[in-house]
């Protein structure tokens, strides 16, 4: 089973990347599971026609131990299994601990053994890598971490922090860094800035995804870009990224 965690600054487009990747992997014949680890719970939005699925934490708050796997994980576009950790009620609780509780709920219900995915994709908020947000790194859930960034300063800063967190856990045998995904915002000297980051954190740019209006055009219809515009430059870039990620994963 391939297990990838995709991190990045909030708003950098990592959920768009993850959704497109899930579709690309499904097109390769893989059984895919995508787990959203952002309190906004919008990772799998465009695998369900623009509609939100119920979060695991919402279900657990209502049903506790009586919650069954079918209420936590939902089939979406192309049969992709979708789960959203969700978050605490506003002003109450810790979002990181909520992610930990959601992961534990999946384990207790033997989700991976029952659903048998070939590939699990974690979509993780990376502005602050602490607590539950670091679980895919430090608890052995993911084998490889990929960081989505642009050439914007705050995005690069967040990416460097994420890479530092991965490095801090490397000697324990946890997930290793697979590379940077450049999701372009068309800022000046963007490629050069991200190449400098890659050198600083001892990794590589594994994909260079273009700024493409087809992404927002697809979302306006409630669909992901791979469904609405499968021949767009962005979709073609994601397919190359998916293949590169499998090659990285095979080296694990």
Describe this structure in words.
Helix 1 crosses helix 11 (233-250). This protein is globular. The longest helix is centred in the middle third of the chain and has 18 residues, at 153-170. Strand 6, helix 7 and strand 7 (176-183) form a beta-alpha-beta unit. It has one domain: P-loop containing nucleotide triphosphate hydrolases (Rossmann fold, 3-Layer(aba) Sandwich), CATH 3.40.50. Strands 3-4-2-5-1-6-7-8 form an 8-stranded mixed β-sheet, sandwiched between helices. The protein contains 11 helices and 8 strands. The termini are close together. The relative contact order is 0.18. The chain is of the alpha/beta class and 252 residues long.
Q: Would you tell me which CATH topology applies?
A: Rossmann fold
Strand percentage: 15-25%
Total of helices: 11
Largest sheet: 8 strands, mixed
Q: How would you spell out the order of helices and strands?
A: EHEHHEEHHEHEHEHEHHH
CATH architecture: 3-Layer(aba) Sandwich
For the termini, the CA-CA separation is 11 Å
Number of domains: 1
CATH-defined superfamily? P-loop containing nucleotide triphosphate hydrolases
Tell me roughly what share of residues is in helical segments.
40-55%
